[in-house]
Design a protein that fits this description.
It is a single chain. The protein has helices at residues 2-35, 40-48, 61-84, 89-106, 112-132, 139-158, 166-186, 201-221, 227-256, and strands at 190-194, 197-200. The chain is mainly alpha-helical and 257 residues long. It has a domain at 1-108. The chain has a two-stranded antiparallel sheet with strand order 1-2. A hairpin with a 2-residue loop joins strand 1 (190-194) and strand 2. Helix 3 (61-84) runs antiparallel to helix 4 and helix 6 (139-158) packs antiparallel against helix 7. It starts with a helix and ends with a helix. The relative contact order is 0.08.
């Protein structure tokens, strides 16, 4: 009985330490990003927080990098977006709180539904952050990074299925993301949240397409794919994308006339 009580007590202490460390990470990221421009120290802290990736033999490094890449993407994106929202303290604090929520609630989950949500959030935030600093890099670099983001996020979802084509399908999704982001660099449409923080239309379109593709793949994997089961996600994505595009075309026509 004493042993059980001791183990339970250590477990509660470990949980408390875990919560405090993750809250501290989010707070440090916020503080360093607000204190330094560009926030190189905040990026370093996020990278150092993943030290366990390399705390194993080198042959496991690649697998660990792939497994932790989504979390790393979210951390780097949080720093970048907090930096871009420099003129809005409330938005910066909200982003830090969302990052803390990611670390404490969503990141530890291994349920397939939550893994899909992890990949979707990572993809949207990463592409938002990437396009927010696209002016600092050559278009080719942004396109390659977009492919990496798409590939890693797709692989994060597909790795939960027993499919031999995981790598190929992830690469194909990466190419789709890269193509849309390449086009977005030449026709940038974004919705302003606050200050310099913008939500590019291309990111919303990719997110909707990714949701529809993931839902379709899940139905096909479970042999329940039919028009009746897939029409909801597909029609939702098509209708929203169409509304976004029509709205923008009308705005362009109105402006030119």
């Amino acid at each position: 009985m004493e042993l059980i009580k001791s183990v339970a007590k250590r477990s509660r202490v470990s949980d408390l330490v875990y919560i405090l460390l993750n809250l501290a990470l989010a707070l440090i990221v916020l503080g360093l990003t607000m204190a330094f421009t560009p926030p190189y120290l905040a990026y370093v802290v996020v990278l150092l927080s993943k030290w366990r990736i390399f705390a194993v033999r080198p042959r496991f490094w690649l697998a660990n990098i792939q497994a932790n890449a989504v979390d790393l993407f979210v951390g780097i994106s949080a720093v970048t977006l907090i930096w871009q929202a420099a003129s809005a303290l409330l938005i910066q604090i909200l982003l830090a709180l969302l990052y803390a929520g990611w670390l404490l609630m969503l990141k530890p989950s291994s349920k397939r539904r939550d893994i899909l949500l992890q990949a979707g959030i990572a993809q949207v935030l990463s592409l938002m952050a990437l396009l927010s600093v696209a002016y600092l890099f050559e278009p080719a670099i942004i396109t390659v990074l977009a492919w990496v983001i798409g590939y890693i996020c797709a692989r994060h979802v597909l790795s939960t299925y027993d499919d031999e084509e995981t790598t190929l399908l992830s690469m194909m999704w990466g190419f789709i993301v890269a193509e849309i982001i390449w086009l977005a660099q030449h026709w940038t449409v974004a919705y302003q949240l606050s200050g310099a923080l913008m939500v590019p239309q291309a990111v919303l379109i990719i997110g909707l397409m990714g949701y529809a593709a993931a839902k379709t793949y899940d139905l096909q994997h479970h042999h329940t794919l039919s028009w009746k089961t897939v029409r909801g996600p597909l029609l939702f994505a098509i209708v929203v994308v169409t509304i976004l595009l029509i709205k923008e075309i009308m705005a362009i026509v109105t402006h030119t006339t």
